[in-house]
Amino acid sequence: MPTLTPPPAPAKPDSAVTECAEVARLAPQFDHSKATSAPDVTRASPSVKGLPLRIGRRLTLTVTIHLAQLSPPAAGDPSPAMRAIAAIATQVCQETIGVDLTDPAETLVAKYGNQDSARKFFVAALASTPATESGELGLPLIASSGTQAPLHVLGYLYAQLPLKDNQHLMEVTIEVSAAHRRRGIGTSLLGVARQIAAAHGRRTLIGWSAHRPVLAGGEPLRPATGVGEIPRDATATFLLRRGFNLEQAEQRSILRLPVPPSVLSGLQAGVPADSDYRVVQWEGATPPALRTHLARLREAMSTDIPSGALEVEKEQWDEERISKWDAMATIGTRRFTTAVEHQPTGDLVAYTEIGQIISNPAHAYQEDTLVVGAHRGHRLGLVCKLANLEFLAREAPAVAAIHTWNAGENDPMLSINRALGFQPGGWEGVWESKL
Ligand SMILES: CC(C)(COP(=O)(O)OP(=O)(O)OC[C@H]1O[C@@H](n2cnc3c(N)ncnc32)[C@H](O)[C@@H]1OP(=O)(O)O)[C@@H](O)C(=O)NCCC(=O)NCCS
Fold first, then answer.
1. Which of 3, 33, 251, 396 to pair with 418, CA 20 to 30 A apart?
2. Domains of the chain listed by start with CATH number
């Protein structure tokens, strides 16, 4: 386990450290930018490192950071650790997007409990010693639900390993409380992520990062696709220096509701009447008779959206996976789906989904939208979206803003969104790192 020593000179003020302006930066003994894999933080001890905290001008205290795995929950109320993780996610979302679009702790626990299509791990970085029982990762286990003494969580890792397809990759989220950044916590959590990936035979890490727009005059970072940009902020620097490539940039856009009736009627007027197609709508879980159809659409969605040079393969969906996924995706979210049936064959050939966040009901996500290749050119994407907006307005009138993310190179989708009135709000980076 590498040890880290405090920097020789007084620490530079760091705008990312808001809790205590005099917290000293860590000077790592190894060069992260050259490291191909992160340190083995679990082998010798679950404690990561001594963090030197400079209090005033003379006194330095060393705080040991501990890593602990959250046990997959049976059920129940979130533990204090899971609540603390949800609070960090909220803080990061507020910081980057300006509004809380995250899952509350209750939703995190319920989703963590559903490990059907992905194996999931939560790992917390703690400022205090956790329990001693060891979990699968060789780290102490702490509860993700139920009662537990309060723990000071400084950051967390959430790793998801697909089980039905894409078994070469692992999706990673690492978030550190703003007051505790640049002390090596993110790097330590990334080290654990790489260990989990290696232990499960995964060779590719994929992660997403939210960003404010690039400031005027700022030097942006361009993705491998060449389309879009993100600012060279602390998160981008962290990921770049730790071996991630920026493969894609997704534009984040917002649609304020209600859409003016004149815009809606103008767009409706441009849709040709075509009796071959019929709109079908539902709220919540997919009706049993449509599950096989939706499975085909989700498979097409996994390959038809632009994904740059990301190493992703076609997803495998069937009726059972749709049903289990619906059970999870409707936790904490009201989901509204509009699909289009091709009447001569009875096949579903297009769909779009909006999810209203139950804990923050003025906000919703625009999720998948797809028209299968053979049925493109009939304005079915617009038909679906207009019908789903009407459905949402009728059933969930509290929604005042819809948020969406589109690959910068996805011109067909972006042009429909612009026509509906979506306004650009920022960018999201899509990152990949090989083990
Ligand atoms: C990315 C993030 C997890 C890093 O956590 P962290 O605990 O600060 O990470 P570390 O202390 O291990 O490493 C910090 C590194 O970030 C970069 N960095 C941070 N602040 C920086 C700044 N002001 N200027 C330049 N580089 C900076 C540097 O590479 C720094 O390493 P260094 O101190 O060795 O130079 C944290 O910034 C965060 O929570 N960001 C928001 C969430 C997010 O977008 N996560 C990524 C998606 S998976």
1. 396
2. 47-252 (3.40.630.30), 254-425 (3.40.630.30)
